[in-house]
Amino acid sequence: MKLRHLLALPLLALATPALADPPGGLDAKVEALRKASGAPGIAVAIVEHGKTTLARGWGYRKLGDPAKVDADTIFQTGSTGKAFTAAALAILVDQGKIGWDDKVIDHMPWFRMYDPWVTREITVRDLLVHHSGLGLGAGDLLFVPRGSLSRKETVKRLAYIKPATSFRSNYAYDNILYMVAGQLIEEVSGKSWEDFMTSEVLRRGGMGTATATYEARWATADRAFPHARIGGAVRGDGPNSVLDEREELGRAAAPAGGLALSANDLAQWLKIQLGHGKLPGGGQLFSETQAAEMWKGVTVQPLTPYPGSLAPLTPKFSTYALGWEVEDYKGARIISHGGGVFGSITHVILLPDQDVGIAVVVNSEDVALLRGVAHLLVDHYLGIPDQDWPKRFGEFMTARIEGGKAALSAVKAAPAKVGPSLSLERYAGTYRDPWYGDVAVTQGTDGLRIDFKTTPRMAGRLVHWQYDTFVTRFDDKAIEPAYVTFALDADGKVSRVTMKPESTIADFSYDYRDLDLRPVEDKK
Description:
The protein is an alpha+beta fold. It has helices at 4-7, 26-37, 82-94, 104-107, 116-121, 151-156, 176-189, 193-203, 214-218, 254-257, 263-274, 288-294, 367-381, 389-412, and strands at 41-48, 51-59, 75-76, 227-228, 241-242, 260-261, 299-300, 318-320, 325-329, 332-341, 344-351, 356-362, 429-433, 437-444, 447-452, 459-466, 469-474, 482-488, 494-501, 518-519. It contains 14 helices and 20 strands.
């Protein structure tokens, strides 16, 4: 779910037969790339023709700890979990408990979208394909960087999120409707999403070390810890450091990307997918009919050419299916999905016509390593000469980070020496957004402070920037800073508060721009 746009770069493919076995010298190559990137650890799973040909790890589970990554080390896999939620729904379709085109309100009569017509019409399939009319990442602040709401309460907040476009007219990636899908699984099956996922998908699928809850992951000794570069001017700048694994995304969002899997688990998942639902030991996890439905593109994604040396990767078409992206390159199909939570990134790639599956996981946010290794492997299995994708992605990511730093530096160099218009105590108060809830501004001995009440431990100082705009300096340095602008009415009172990220390359899930905060009247 996090870093998703960076992870969605399409994979190059050609319609040529798959070569046998992983490329020679892969072990040394991956280790050299890992060391050069500064990433703590990486794991790779490869399946060819129903057999695991590689499942192993490189590097370390945690910086400063000698424990090494192996084939059973579980990594947080982010939005690649969307395909697992789709598979859970497919099981319920096979059982006759739901249909893909059932109206959501037929199973959850209390469910509401902002538009009553959309409430009546939205289907189970619509929940999964990013064409609901919601904007990019709408509602993500309800669980990013942390959350306090239950899944059902989070779903109820959807009624207050205004659409950005009309229903089924445009593609815009979201996480919150996968939370609806998770709630639907609970209401239909009688089991929580976590319990259903664990028993009916992970364990039945032979993914013995995979977890669907934070507690189960924390209880697993062989687990990778999250890392990120948060000490520089923008996220991604500076050296990697260990993140607090307990400071995680809100649990309500787990159906959008809350799983943790090892290389061995991912190999099992690749076999099930390439086998159209067949279980390696016999039987079906879901039927071939549902397997075909989940790979069927529904929403057309706009094509934006990739810059510089990545330009050849632009596909001729790109669609979103049920938890998967379906793309082409010169006639070959690629079915894939990226995943990212803070401190851990993943990519899962299926080459169905070559009967090959690849999964790569990294316990940091080093995209160039992840995508460089993934492309190296795809090129091998499609008979394409080495194109040095690690270098290309490295140059792309360096330019992105440097561009973000330059943009921030340029803004910081010339703030208007005007304001604030009011004495600090007059900015203090509680401000409320219909879908997010309350944000409190208080005055203390060190000036103004801000506290996002729906988000645990998302608080810090407000430092004056220019005019009536302040910038957050959160106590937790891993949280993206935001500009906070107070609008005044004709009487000089605060009438509205708006926000935007300070960094131009902040993750889209910091959807500060969607907040429309208004003063809460004192009822005393």
